[in-house]
Amino acid sequence: MGKVKIFDTTLRDGEQSPGINLNHKEKLDIAFQLERLGVDIIEAGFPASSQGDFQSVKDIATQIKNSSITGLARSKKEDIDACWEALKQSAEPRIHVFLATSPIHMQYKLKLTPEQVVERAVESVKYAAKKFPYVQFSAEDASRSDWTFLARIIEATIDAGASVINLPDTVGYGMPKEISELFEYMTKNVPNIDRAILSTHNHDDLGMGVANSLAAVQGGARQVECTINGIGERAGNASLEEIAVGLHIRSDFYKTGTNIQLNELKRTSALVSRYTSMPIPKNKAVVGSNAFAHESGIHQDGMLKHKETYEIITPELVGATSSNPLGKHSGRHAFQEKMKELGFKGTADELNQLFQSFKTLADKKKTVTEDDLYALMIDQGEDEQVQTYSLQALQVSYGTNQTPTATIKLVKSGDKEITEASTGSGSVEAIYNTLAKLTDYEYRLTDYRIQSITEGEDSLAEVHVKLSKEEQSQSGRGVAHDVLEASAKAYLHAVNRMLNEEKRKKEPSTVG
Ligand SMILES: CC(=O)SCCNC(=O)CCNC(=O)[C@H](O)C(C)(C)COP(=O)(O)OP(=O)(O)OC[C@H]1O[C@@H](n2cnc3c(N)ncnc32)[C@H](O)[C@@H]1OP(=O)(O)O
Ligand SMILES: CC(C)C(=O)C(=O)O
Ligand SMILES: [Mg+2]
Prior knowledge:
binds 3-methyl-2-oxobutanoic acid; leucine biosynthesis; 2-isopropylmalate synthase; eight-stranded parallel beta barrel; 14 strands; binds acetyl coenzyme *A; alpha/beta
């Protein structure tokens, strides 16, 4: 069996997404990327719909060399003529003529009888075939059409010159088994079907776009129409990246493949997302940022032991990279691996302590980044010094028209709990006034700096302070999820270092 042709309609049906309006340059950029991706046919637009669409189709048709270009036309001479004017310079001019075949569309929208629909379709395909070497006919709303009538119009349009017959699930109504049977039925019941290839075009109203496309391939379709990121009318079209990767990964099942250069998928998806301002959901198959991310401990452990335990698609296949983000579901194996990567050389006990701090942090933060882990490592190094004072509890009350008050409980010398409260003109000053009382020292705060270690709302805050007393000064650093807690920690860090330094000076020198 030959390869399934990929017909990309991002620039036509994709652009029909509410809110999307691509300009000329954006359309050309996307067309060039689709060509790089290895798309067989690019539906560049609907030339009769506007002057802008006409010009884009024309320019794409003259500039793209390695994909065939097509344009959409209603079953009307004016639409076909506009399409010809836009596409006549293309290397392989193709037209896509459509007319609806379902009872509801024929009666209410077209206001035509089934006989008139067959007549109009045949007349249009014949007219198009006089100009175009390749004519595709689409029976719009095929999935809600009567199958006997559909077989009749397919036979008639093939006789009129159509070499591709598309059976769209225009409103995303079909179910996979039904779509597969529809294609099998037409393959068996249309006498001249071997003179055309069958094409499938699915919408995602019931979330079946990709499943129906693959089911159609099972039923005999040899062309699949789809869009990048699944953009399109209403809930969108079937997504190209999912179809191409599905056919590749399960080629054992479908016994076919595509010409798509899979490692261009991620880039193409990102380009379309940027130009259409339609963000890609994190959990989107193939191209979502979580598609190759493994967060839970058991999965990360499995991945470290053998990637295929949890990865059926390698990120490299689609031009993406994998990641093992650490979060609250991560276990010791993945944590240890990451710490090794970061250069941790401590003992098993130290690693264990770090793992506990990491778990505490991960409970508050969605993803713990490398920078967060560095911060934890550095904090641990500091913990090895004598900590005269350590923070037990901190409460700050703050409100407009209210004096900020801090209540702080410290542990002194490892066992004694001491508590104090003080006010200040701001929350940080209230904290520092309270800490000054608790630590019996009157330091001057000569520097206070705050920075976020990582990006995002849930990043760790890092506070740096400098405390001075007479000739002495000492810096301190505190890291916490909360700015006020980091401020208190930084102050205590400086006090503890100051006390350690004083003690060291008093100790008799061992040198000499
Ligand atoms: C399933 C799909 O995705 S189909 C493609 C949808 N895409 C678009 O509609 C692209 C943007 N559309 C447009 O710019 C405009 O709708 C145009 C330029 C195509 C037509 O504009 P207008 O002439 O103002 O017509 P309008 O859009 O209001 O109505 C559509 C007309 O086309 C007719 N029509 C619909 N499909 C077809 C068809 N396949 N063949 C012939 N006529 C058709 C309708 O019956 C209606 O005809 P009527 O005016 O006699 O009732
Ligand atoms: C024009 C046709 C193919 C279409 O987009 C549809 O039926 O969804
Ligand atoms: Mg469509």
